[in-house]
Model the fold of this input.
Amino acid sequence: MRTLAVIIAIVVLVAIVAILTGFVNLSGRAGEMPRVAVEGGRLPAVNADVGSVDVGTTNTTVEVPKVETERRTVELPKVEVRKPQ
Done:
């Protein structure tokens, strides 16, 4: 894979040198975008009968776990970044 990158770099370098020294002369003329015209047609017509959705709330009794927390001292990683002087 690295060899392929070296080969591509050499080819690009040779192409640049060839253009700069005049060995290769690139010339051309300006192009233009094609003209496109759209006429006629129509969008499809769609009729849709859809259901309804009712959204609300209700009261229900459920079991909910009780979670307790406590404070502990733990060791955490520390990272400092300093600007070069």
